[in-house]
Each structure stands twice: as C-alpha cells, then as structure tokens.
Q: What sequence folds into this?
C-alpha cells in the first residue's frame, strides 16, 4: 500500500481522493442509470 502511494502530503492525498471519488461516482451513476433504465423498460 505504501508503494502505491509513496507520498502522502495533502496535495497528493487530495488528488488521490478526488480521482477515486470521481471514478467511483461515475461507475455508480452508470450502474444506477442502467438498472433504472432496464427496470423501467421491463415494467
């Protein structure tokens, strides 16, 4: 874990958190919209 994130200063930490949040948010939104769309089309 320490090799993946070699430098935990606030700037790099913020960047890592932001990128992780952005990717997770995009993935969740795509999954949510896909499930919602298929459920609506079935009903």
A:
């Amino acid at each position: 874990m320490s090799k993946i994130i070699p430098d935990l200063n606030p700037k790099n930490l913020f960047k890592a958190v932001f990128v992780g949040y952005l990717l997770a948010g995009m993935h969740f939104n795509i999954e949510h919209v896909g499930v919602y769309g298929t459920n609506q089309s079935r009903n």
Summary: The chain has one domain: 1-43.
